Amino acid sequence: MKIVSQMKKYSILTCVGLVLSINMLIADVRLPQIFSDGMVLQRNQPIAIWGWADPGEQVSVGFKDQRRQVTADGSGKWKLLLSPEEAGGPFELVVSGNNTITLTDVLIGEVWVCSGQSNMEWNVANSDRAEQEIAGANYPQIRHVKIPRKTAGTAQEDISEPLTWKEANPANVGEFTAVGYFYARELHNELNVPIGLINTSWGGTIVETWISKEALEKDKSLKKAVSVYEAIPADTIQKNTNPNRYPTLLFNAMINPLIPYTIKGAIWYQGESNAGRAYEYRKSFPMMIKDWRKRWGLGDFPFYFVQLASFKAAGGTSATGSTWAELREAQHLTLSLPRTGEAVTIDIGNTDDIHPRNKQDVGKRLAGIALHDSYGRNVVYSGPVYQKHKVKGPEVTVYFDHVHGGLTAQGGGKVIGFEVAGADQQFYPAEATIAGKTVVVRSSSVSKPKAIRYAWADDPSTSNLFNREGFPACPFRTDHWEPVTKGAIYELKGN
Question: Which of 86, 263, 415, 476 is a plausible cystine mate for 432, CB 3.0–4.6 Å?
Answer without folding.
Answer: 415
